[in-house]
Amino acid sequence: MRRRISAFLGPEALDQYAVEGVLRARHRYVHQGDPEPARAVVPQAIGLGLAALLRYAAAAPAFPDKSTLLDYLDWTASGARLTRTWTAAERRALGRLQKHTPAPLAFPFLAALAAATEEPAT
């Protein structure tokens, strides 16, 4: 899931949306029945969800079905790992084949939400 998020939203999204913490909270909720996600990840989870939904809405018309989109994201992630040894021209050629913009989106209102949901100091 991390590789696909990085491929879809860009590697900087992993930090911007605190993906590790969001995925841990999701895991605890889905697999362990923890009804209370860590309050600190709520704004990042909302940002991640919104960014993924908006990027998906833009990219979906280029793919006939979900399976093809997931194959494309896996291909994109593999290509990103391979480009470390490529020339700039080769990296640009791969970029021209991409059917989406792998970049996170900024949601300034989430900063206010993050401040409002911070755990009180004990």
Quick tags:
122 residues, elongated
Describe the structure.
By secondary structure, the protein is an all-alpha fold. The chain has one domain (2-116). Helices cover 66% and strands 0% of the residues. It contains seven helices and no strands. The protein has helices at residues 2-9, 13-16, 19-32, 42-59, 66-82, 88-97, 109-117. The protein is elongated, with a radius of gyration of 17 Å. The termini are far apart. The model has no long low-confidence stretch (mean pLDDT 86).
Précis, in short:
With 122 residues, this protein is mainly alpha-helical.
Question: How are the SSEs placed, and which strands pair?
Answer:
Blueprint: H1 2-9, H2 13-16, H3 19-32, H4 42-59, H5 66-82, H6 88-97, H7 109-117
Helix pairs in contact: 1-5, 4-7
Total beta-strand segments: 0
Ranges where pLDDT stays below 50 over 5 or more residues in a row are: none
What is the percent of helical residues?
55-70%
Question: What is the molecular shape?
Answer: elongated
Strand content: under 5%
Task: Tell me, rounded to a whole number, the average pLDDT.
Answer: 86
